[in-house]
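pinned: reference chain
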Amino acid sequence: MEFEPRDQYLQRVKKLSEIVETGHVAYPTRFAWTHTAGEILEKYGQKSAEDLAAHRVEVRVAGRLVQMRGHGKAGFAHLLNQGHRLQIYVKLDIVGPRGYELYRRLDLGDTIGVAGHLFRTKTNELTIWVESIELLSKALLPLPEKWHGLSDVESRFRQRYLDLISNERVRDIFTKRAAVLREIRRFFDERGYMEVETPMMHPIAGGATARPFTTHHNTLDVKLYLRIAPELYLKRLVVGGLDRVYEINRNFRNEGISTQHNPEFTMLEFYEAYSDVESMMVLTEELLALLAQKICGSTTVRYGEHALDFGRIERMSMREAIVRHWPGYAGPPPSLADLGAPGGARKFLENWDAATRGSGGEGVAIGATDSDGACIGALFEAVAEEKLIQPVMIYDFPTAISPLSKRRLDDPSIAERFELYVAGMEIANGFSELNDPADQEARFREQIEHGGDEVPKQLDEDYIRALAHGLPPTGGEGIGIDRVVMLLTDSHSIREVILFPLLRPAAPDSPAGDDNPAPDETK
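pinned: its structure tokens
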């Protein structure tokens, strides 16, 4: 194996050999610990030196050495255990020559186990007075001194194990992510939902508009698609009588990488029979407020320079958002009536496109056959989406871009659908589920006929068959877990909240890989 720096690796290998020669086991099977560092700090952190002396507390603790300082025949060190640091004191007279010789041959990064009792030093630091010490695992490579600057971004994500050791904030992010998932499960379990699991390999790509990853099953000799979304399977379960279901699922979309997108990501999807889009909006308000309170201690959450208020989520129609955020350089803003008139959205989209290209921007591709609804959707994404900082639910989506949503009874061109936006990101997408099998089949066929890399290529006849057996009125929704965690941990890249984000292959001559991100990774 080739490691850098090579000399440190060889020195540590030599030390390990010397430790073994003195009778210590190089890699023992287990260590019978009694406390974690966190438990000791929480339970005894306020105890005085006199209390600890009067009521001796025996402990056995394991951890990674992250700091050492010697004083002749005695030394102090800090152990890192589950994110908490605890000082130990090792003295020759107490651990004996063999134990102290082991201590002297230890390096930063080694994992050790110690047994002893608690006391306070002259500086009043809670410390373990070590009576016995043993090596649990030798670190043959040194810990990084620090992570800093763009040049270490790739190394941090590739070698997440070092990132977790070196960066307390990183550990805190993933501790909070785990708490988010626990609270979500508790929230839905308490409301009578059943957690389920649906397939991750699908014979037909569907449930969302995205380019899929493909694979092949050799025995069956069939092409399969990694899950884009679990939606169609979850609604089959509602047809089957599971009236309230949810799934925390991994999805895969063969698309670009950005600060908001990773090809593999985590979603929460949930469906409730005898419900509709309004019920989903109310449930989402309750869930987000609860998560903010539980994770951050307040419904107001700091995200960069913004204070996001999850206790007060605004509601706004898509057309209202376009009018409110219309850029001045593109001419007078449209009225709601303008956007609702035939051809109105296309006209204003063309005006915006021309003004944007005229000022050096990229504009937007406008197809000759794009419907008024598609133009409304494109206009919203172009002028409003990034400006939606405070939590806001955008409703009244065009039916043309909502193939799985019910139409509004008073206006069939509008779907009973909403999306939640926070900090310019889409966080949730919910609607009254379309349960008319004939209407659903017609919309699927229209979507397939329209074509494109991101739309399904095949009609899911079994899903239509399931609807024909009767899907009750149902509200459903998907929420992006990764983006929720970003907001609740003040993280501004999705790669910060995914333990092992997808990266380009490492360069052959570098253990950390290419430090330059892919062309669209920094968007």
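why pinned: The radius of gyration is 29 Å. Residues 511-523 have pLDDT under 50 and may be disordered.
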